[in-house]
Amino acid sequence: MARTTPSTTPPDNTDTASDVLTGLALAAWHVLRWSVIVTWWAVLFPMVTFPAVLTAWAWIAYGWQAGIAAALLSLAVLTTWRFTHPSSFRAAIPARIRARFRRYQHRRQWASVCALNGLAPVLDGVPIIPRLRKVRIHPDTDVLLVELVVGQTLTDWSRRCDALAHGWRVSAVTATSATPGQVTLTIRTRDRLATPIPLPTPKAGVDLDAVPIGRTDDGDTWRVRIAGRHLLVAGATGAGKGSVVWSILTGLAPAVQTGLVRLWVIDPKGGMEFGSATALFDRFVHTTGPDTVQLLRDAAELVRDRADRYRGHARAHTATTAEPQVVIVIDELASLTAYETDRKAATETTQLLSLVLSQGRAVGVSVIAAAQDPSKEVLSMRQLFPTRIGLRLTEATQVDMALGQGARAAGALCDQIPDALPGVGYQIEDGTAQPIRVRAFHVTDTDIDTVVAGYTIPGAARPQPDTDQPGTSASDAGDPSAYPTPGF
Ligand SMILES: Nc1ncnc2c1ncn2[C@@H]1O[C@H](COP(=O)(O)OP(=O)(O)OP(=O)(O)O)[C@@H](O)[C@H]1O
Ligand SMILES: [Mg+2]
């Protein structure tokens, strides 16, 4: 066995020299790297760099007094900018710094985020991190474009969205896929819909193609089309269906007053929801059964009559006082169909409603229906509603039932809307894949009283329904002649 003896050779000077050289090279590399970073940031933020350079130059060239004067002048300019044009200031400095920082943070944490959430499959003992292709930072959302690892699906990512949201400490993360092999993660960093949106004063000159009823996720006004459309509003009890319908009605109120729109309202809950606004309505029913059936018969008759008259003349209806847009509001669809104990009435209601839904759009008859329970039998007519709005729902499976196949996978997370956000939901339009997140105006009882007082139909003072005895009488549907409807 060979014996090892302690080395007695003196330390090699060449080793020390090479260590020094390596140290110097490393230091030079760091200096160069930081110079590039600082220069790059200086170029990116001239509004910060320029005052700093000005101050340094004044100090060196003219002494410390000049330096301080330059610094104070720069500060005054920036402060004036901050207070006179806050939005451009925010966009130019804090928002850009934040965007840079968040982009850097996402890229730096990406590997551990994937590994901790089980999104980095392991091959031969080595984790494969999905490639982060792009990071876009917006004021309210961060959007990450991710390349899937072979074997991963959109569902794998959708399932982890809740965990990702908790990890990032944000209110929601959604995963969607527009291109095979890629997933877009939308991280909601700020919720513009977190606080109730007060009802604005309804504007005259109502555009039936774009009635404002709230706000969208990106801060725009949420508008819905009423002409040529039917709207379905699905949501659990207390989800805010009433606020969506009321936002529409108050938006339409000026057109109701001028006679361009007529409202036929079915409020099967005994008139509790709409009974205070009958002065805006042309027809009002607060019982199920014969009254409701009669109103729907009249609607079907109107549709047939208009279709006969328009045939060969007009391809689309334009609302006039002679031929107004008729908007039929049904507060709880299930009360007329699934929950109706009179099966004969339920069957006739379904037939009449199907007719109005399938043929009414072209002739100026629209239906707005609210539904608490989007079960199959309630929403057998779902496909006939081109605009569908899903508010808070109790189960994930209800989302596709209410909004259509694939709506939840496309990002309509109605089952994840907290109780604390009534009026928040997702709207989906037939023909568009992407749901938009929205919140309806918060319409209070005082708002309703103000709108009713301001836009009552002239000369048509209507009796209040007898809401003390729900379901007993007080319907005008059985006697259409009580409220003359010119032009029908
Ligand atoms: N858009 C909104 N913004 C703020 N608060 C709202 C909004 N919509 C509803 N709310 C609040 O939530 C409560 C319940 O709303 P709403 O009556 O509209 O629910 P709903 O879905 O119609 O319930 P139900 O099925 O019982 O009729 C309201 O009393 C109101 O205080
Ligand atoms: Mg309601």
TrEMBL record:
GO terms for molecular function: ATP binding; DNA binding. The chain crosses the membrane at residues 66-84, 110-129. Residues 208-400 form the FtsK domain. Keywords: ATP-binding, Membrane, Nucleotide-binding, Transmembrane, Transmembrane helix. ATP binds at G235, A236, T237, G238, A239, G240, K241, G242. The keyword ATP-binding applies. InterPro entries: AAA+_ATPase (IPR003593), FtsK/SpoIIIE/SftA (IPR050206), FtsK_dom (IPR002543), P-loop_NTPase (IPR027417). Residues 466-475 have a biased composition (Polar residues). The keyword tRNA processing does not apply. It comes from the Bacteria. SMART domains: AAA. Residues 457-488 are annotated as: Disordered. This is FtsK/SpoIIIE domain-containing protein. The lineage of its organism: Bacteria, Bacillati, Actinomycetota, Actinomycetes, Micrococcales.
